What we know:
Layout: E1 7-15, E2 25-33, E3 49-53, E4 61-64, E5 76-80, E6 86-88, H1 102-105, E7 106-108, E8 114-117, E9 128-137, E10 146-156, E11 164-165, E12 169-175, E13 183-186, E14 189-190, E15 199-203, H2 206-209, E16 212-214, E17 220-223, E18 234-242, E19 250-260
Parallel strand pairs: 3-10, 12-19
Antiparallel strand pairs: 1-2, 4-8, 5-9, 6-9, 7-8, 9-10, 11-14, 13-17, 15-18, 16-17, 18-19
InterPro entries: Cadherin-like_dom, Cadherin-like_sf, Cadherin_CS, Protocadherin/Cadherin-CA
Membrane topology: Single-pass membrane protein; Single-pass type I membrane protein
GO molecular function: calcium ion binding
Amino acid sequence: MQTRRTAYVLSVMALDGAPGNQQRHAYSTVNITVMDINNKLPIFPDQGRISIMENTMVGTLITRFNASDLDSTAIIRYALDANLCEAKNERGIPLKPIDFNCSAYFLLDQFDGTLRVAKVIDREVAEIIKLVIRAEDVASDTGPQIATANLVIDVEDANDNNPKFREPYYKFSITENSKSGTLVGSVTADDLDKNRTITYVLEGYPETLKLIHLDNTTGDVFVFNKIDHEVYNWLNMTVKATDSGVPPRYSRTEMYVQVLDENDNN
């Protein structure tokens, strides 16, 4: 930025009206100082895009705003414009202010422009947040001088949710002597965390686990070996669902398989 001149020094010569060598003159120095009038808006460009991790501790510094002003007497103060704040969930659906109040989640220091976490942010609630920040020159000589800038915050996912089965427990039934590969049923768990893969395993008595197979990717349950109703009326097992996070999180539910009798004995 070119430095502005605020002072000028002029040398002034005065001549009288005498002819030729009879003419007389005199010199004088004039100092001119240009007094600044505070009449320029703050310079405050958009702040781009940054990322923070969900569950970031309260008080953590996110960024610092730094507006400039051409006026020498400028005094800048910062504020969040809560009315223009926008937040969207992971499906891109805008959130209502009652569901996400920007003023509650962020603390902006009006003097130094530092932005900090005021409340723990849950990515499963808000994934993209757009803040509008006001920079005002409170020393203006010509009325309000306010500039605004946008900051987009991407909330990154942390593995903070256990997989959750869609049912509190699962109950299936099959006929005894069903062929290996017969579908018994299916179990499903969901994970609120983003891009998590669920892996399923069966837990239980070894002799029971030899009879049933669980696809660890799909959650489909199949007959693995011949099941005799006269030996097993019910098969009771536990299904464990584990996500792909680091460290992984898991949950368990019970699965009950009723073995139905068929007329296979004399």
